[in-house]
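Worked example 3 (structure in, sequence out).
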């Protein structure tokens, strides 16, 4: 059924006032999913219109979209979307910044440590000396990534581990906000064998220091890029410093569609939200800004790759990984990150007079808002 925007608003107002212990009935679920489908269809329609305006839009085997120099498309993303995965390696449980888009917002002082002298690989704890055993038994992944939280808090611990995986011929990339990097540490990473480094430039609001560090990284590390959740703040700051950023000769920019969880969603209260395939909840402006960003890159012929790392891309990633892991047909770990649907966050978009559903139908008997009075 194609619920009307007005009926959806009435129902979601009711759902948002339900107590946590209240039961969502099957009919309620049908109404909820109809509303989500109506919102998502309208968002997809908007985004498809924006994509039609981008010259030279390319796909990576229909798993994601990008523009620009295909040879500079990040190998870490190829591993994630086409290879045997992107195994996360965790070490550092601290960060020197607190970004409102961070998935660990508000809990950065309470992140459990991995353990003294230990590394978390595939959810298992290893000493560095165990890595040789791991490599001798498991099939090597096409790529690994150093994540969680800011590696430069203790970057000197990473060099010897990077050397081990370099010797094994595994592509390695590392995420950083870049504020603690220096020429000395970036050179050491390059010498250790790091293949790719990704700067979250939005974390520092495109600070001059981090832009300088991006240029420095290019001297020592083969593939250097930006990976940042696309927000209005990053979009605006980037274009103010576009020349300086592009002059670093970086290879790629990954524009991540911002998705929210229970930690950071309150930082975006009041924004228009949608839910993609009953999975990630995102502000509608995030991918819209990415597509506008890509259009500018294509029109101005930036000599790099700009990647639309969207919710669609994350969905494709999950399918690729489940396939490579030999899981059952259709398996995917892409899922909603909320234990209970946050109905209230969809009220702004349903109240937005400028946002319209593509088509609407009258609800069948038993689903109309008049049912609320019977429930009450």
């Amino acid at each position: 059924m194609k619920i009307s925007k007005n009926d959806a608003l009435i129902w979601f107002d009711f759902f948002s006032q339900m107590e946590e212990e209240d039961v969502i009935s099957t009919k309620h679920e049908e109404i909820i999913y109809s509303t989500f489908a109506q919102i998502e269809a309208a968002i997809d329609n908007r985004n498809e219109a924006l994509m039609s305006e981008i010259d030279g839009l390319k796909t990576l085997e229909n798993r994601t979209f990008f523009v620009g120099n295909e040879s500079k498309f990040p190998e870490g993303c190829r591993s994630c979307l086409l290879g045997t995965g992107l195994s996360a390696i965790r070490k550092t449980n601290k960060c020197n910044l607190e970004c409102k888009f961070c998935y660990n917002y508000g809990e950065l002082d309470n992140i459990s440590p991995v353990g003294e002298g230990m590394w978390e690989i595939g959810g298992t704890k290893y000493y560095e000396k165990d890595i040789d055993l791991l490599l001798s038994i498991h099939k090597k992944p096409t790529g690994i990534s150093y994540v969680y939280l800011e590696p430069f808090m203790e970057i000197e611990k990473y060099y010897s581990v990077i050397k081990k995986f370099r010797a094994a011929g595994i592509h390695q990339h590392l995420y950083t906000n870049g504020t603690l990097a220096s020429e000395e540490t970036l050179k050491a990473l390059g010498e250790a064998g790091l293949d790719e480094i990704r700067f979250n430039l939005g974390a520092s609001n495109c600070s001059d220091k981090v832009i300088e560090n991006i240029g420095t990284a290019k001297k020592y590390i083969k593939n250097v890029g930006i990976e940042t959740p696309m927000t209005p703040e990053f979009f605006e700051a980037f274009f103010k410093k576009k020349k300086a950023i592009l002059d670093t000769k970086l290879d790629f920019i990954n524009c991540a569609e911002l998705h929210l969880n229970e930690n950071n969603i309150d930082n975006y209260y009041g924004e228009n939200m949608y839910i993609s395939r009953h999975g990630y909840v995102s502000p509608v402006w995030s991918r819209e800004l990415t597509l506008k960003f890509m259009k500018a890159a294509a029109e101005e012929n930036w000599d790099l790759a700009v990647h639309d790392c969207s919710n669609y891309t994350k969905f494709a990633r999950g399918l690729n990984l489940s396939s490579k892991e030999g899981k059952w047909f259709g398996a995917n770990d892409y899922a909603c990150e909320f234990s209970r649907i946050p109905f209230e966050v969809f009220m702004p978009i349903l109240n937005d007079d400028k946002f319209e559903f593509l088509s609407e139908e009258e609800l069948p008997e038993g689903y109309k808002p008049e049912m609320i009075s019977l429930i009450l």
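Notes: Residues 26-51 form the longest helix (26 residues). The chain has a mean pLDDT of 96.
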